Amino acid sequence: MKYTYKNTMHACYTGFITQAIVNNLAPLLFIIFQDRFNISFEMVGRLILINFGTQIAADLFAAKYADRIGYRKAAVAAHLFCGLGLICLGILPGLLPNPYTGLMIAVMIYAVGGGFIEVLISPIVESLPGDAKASAMSLLHSFYCWGQMAVVLITTLLVKILGADVWFILPVMWSVIPLYNMFMFMKVPLMPPVEEKEKTPLRQLFGARTFVLALILMMCAGSSELAMSQWSSLFAEKGLQVPKLVGDLLGPCLFALLMGIGRTIYGNFGHRINLKKALITSGALCVICYAVTIFVQVPIISLLGCALCGFSVSLMWPGTLSLTAESFPKGGTAMFGLLAVFGDLGASIGPWMAGLVSDLAQESHRLLAIGQAYGMGSDQVGLKTGLLSAMIFPIMLTVSLAVMKERKRVRS
After folding, report:
1. Domain assignments of the chain as residue spans, ordered by start
2. What is the pLDDT of residues 219-236, one digit of tens each?
3. For residues 253-281, b (16+ Cβ closer than 10 Å) or e, as one string?
4. CATH class of 5-186+201-404
5. Does residue 377 come out as left (phi exceeding 0), alpha (psi in the -120 to 50 range) or beta?
6. What phi and psi values does residue 131 have, to the nearest 5 degrees?
7. Is the pLDDT of residue 242 over 60?
8. Closest by Cα among 270, 266, 262 to 289
9. pTM of the model
């Protein structure tokens, strides 16, 4: 069989599905981990921090050495790490004396692969022949959403059907996808990376205000998206007191669906949309969605606020990548690596901060008293306060974009 660039694009799509698996499978099992292994909200948040912290280290390594290693070898290694990490997630907690240690080791292994994928796939797609790069980037990132949606649906239904006692089978089952895609990247054609002499130097990138602002936007985008998506399953069950199946379907699953729809719409019609205006609108809508999720006491409306947040964040990550790639077309792997670092920095800080604030809120007698007056238990008070602290990131993103747009208007 002769492989074409269309096969390359499909392998990239599957790469982002793999990224969705390693980022979203464990959060669906957080309740099980808490019940089985007696871990706190902060320890749950620490797993998210370890995941994205390790991805940051992998981002930096890939940004520096991917061109030397070669995109093909690096992509193959990325999927191998993801597959092995998922297998370890199912096996190590039952083998090691301390199950939490097993969880941490597994998360670090698949996070290495996730970091590599994040740095490699975007420049691979950017290098493929064709126009409308921003639309192609958004469409690529929509597959992260479809992967997230599939993970939520299939995992939730299997836990419901088979029971929580066999949770360890699920990570091993999901490992099939990255291992399959590993073999695809051994065969598909790849474009050569930008020549070293043609790349925009990092010193020049950091000297540009537009690039520095893009790094801040990536951090805010990662926090805005992941703080809600990573905590939505646990928030629905413990914060809103709804059954896990209902909470997962109306929370993280609908979140992923609407995020995928948003990215697909832009992927198909992005050439007609002003990207900066769309990003400002997305940020403002995200703030509203956070507020509805946190402050509305009707569970179904709160869940819909959480789900609509998926649509509001859909453009943030790929949109910022596209704006930066348009401004610095020869930034190369290092540029995408730095953007991924700051995206993962936000993706790790936001959810971890939400978990830390949740634990601290449950120790505050004043907050607990306020919550009791509104009929909320300690878990509800903690989780709502945690998400409230994470709302600062979509606010920062919206304000930063508005300032950026105003400065450009004044200059013109």
Report:
1. 5-186+201-404
2. 999 999 888 887 777 777
3. bbbbbbbbbbbbbbbeebeebebeebbbe
4. mainly alpha
5. beta
6. -100, -170
7. yes
8. 262
9. 0.76
Contact 307, 148 (CB under 8 A): no
Number of neighbouring beta carbons within 10 Å of residue 192 = 9
SS3 content of the chain, % helix, strand, coil (to 5): 85, 0, 15
Q: What's the pLDDT tens digit per position in 14-49?
A: 999 999 999 889 888 888 888 888 888 778 878 888
How far is it, in rounded angstroms, from Cα 245 to Cα 256?
15
Residues 328, 335: contact at Cβ < 8 Å?
A: yes
Q: What percent of the chain has pLDDT over 90?
A: 29
Q: Give the C-alpha separation, 412 to 111, whole Å.
A: 44
Q: How confident is the model at residue 52 (pLDDT cuts 50, 70, 90)?
A: confident
Which DSSP letter does residue 163 get? -
Round to whole Å and give the CA distance between 196 and 116. Answer: 20
Dig out the tokens for 389 from the structure.
Answer: 């602290």
DSSP secondary structure letters along 336-385 = HHHHHHHHHHHHHHHHHHHHHHHHHHTT-HHHHHHHHHTT--HHHHHHHH
